[in-house]
Design brief:
Blueprint: E1 6-7, H1 9-17, H2 19-27, H3 36-56, H4 62-66, H5 69-81, H6 83-86, E2 94-105, E3 108-119, E4 124-130, H7 138-143, H8 145-156, E5 165-171, E6 185-190, H9 193-220
Parallel strand pairs: 1-3, 4-5
Antiparallel strand pairs: 2-3, 3-4, 5-6
Helix pairs in contact: 1-2, 1-8, 8-9
Length: about 270
């Protein structure tokens, strides 16, 4: 079995949480029954990303907006909440939607897709649109591989120091519990040289583990390691039965809507 060369933040999150699940999804190409509610959420998110990209390209968005009132309301609320970022007069030296970058690292290609990247001579800002109804905790966001990988790759592929970089998550579909109105919320994650060094060390360790697991799989037909039961992740994993981690009658796959690793990057 050839090694997996291209890695995204979702794959890093999956492998760090459970190597066996990584094997099932990305090496064995196993699929799980789609969750209807998640499918609707993903479809809405894809449409929102497409609408924001068309807006950046100065293409008409009326057709997309007319497909659902939620899209139009979410975009209007986001533009109102972040005029300094989304205003058409904002013109940094580099500004691009759905910007892709790839970094070679320890025999792998680390690939990121930025929803919106803003670069100037003194700072770099990554913006990411999230469609969760409830924003994630900032500390959890900072430890997620999406945040860490996106900032790491940007620091490695520009001349800007880590302290000049940041990543901003906009939760664009949040609802006020009293009025039910859309109220976008922002979480800003700063970066620093010590964080950059920690991410490099953690990436090195994680990819060494992946290389060892791939080698054992190829040469000894040895499955990837399973997650520790004490972490309590198996009860909501769609592969729990396959791993003999739960009785058949109690196996109910579910997906955490706040888990960034379950939301695929949107490549347009």
């Amino acid at each position: 079995m050839p090694p997996l060369l291209n890695l995204s933040q979702g794959q890093l999150n999956t492998f760090s949480q459970c190597p066996r699940k990584f094997q099932y999804l990305y090496l064995d190409s196993l699929t799980v029954p789609p969750d209807p509610q998640q499918q609707l959420s993903l479809a809405w998110g894809s449409q929102f990303h497409l609408m924001m990209q068309q807006r950046e390209l100065e293409l008409p968005v009326e057709t997309l907006q007319s497909e659902t009132a939620d899209l139009q309301a979410a975009m209007a609320a986001l533009v109102a909440a972040a005029p300094e970022v989304l205003a058409e007069t904002t013109e940094p030296p580099f500004r691009q939607s759905e910007h892709r970058r790839t970094l070679a690292f320890d025999g792998y290609l680390l690939t990121v897709i930025y929803d919106l990247l803003l670069l100037s001579a003194t700072q770099g800002q990554i913006l990411d649109w999230k469609t969760h109804l409830v924003p994630r905790n900032p500390d959890r966001l900072a430890q997620d591989w999406q945040t860490r990988l996106y900032l790491y790759v940007l620091a490695e592929t520009t001349d800007l120091p880590p302290a000049a970089l940041s990543m901003t998550y906009w939760f664009v579909r949040c609802q006020d519990p009293e009025t039910q109105d859309l109220a976008p919320q922002r979480v800003v994650i700063p970066y620093s040289a010590p964080q950059h060094d920690r991410t490099r060390a953690d990436l090195t360790q994680l990819l060494n583990q992946l290389s060892q697991a791939l080698a054992a799989d190829r040469t000894q037909d040895q499955p990837f390691p399973q997650v520790d039961l004490n972490q309590g992740l198996c009860h909501r994993c769609p592969f729990a039965l396959r791993c003999d981690r739960t009785p058949a009658q109690t196996t109910q796959p579910s997906i955490d809507p706040c888990d960034l690793s379950t939301i695929p990057e949107v490549s347009l």
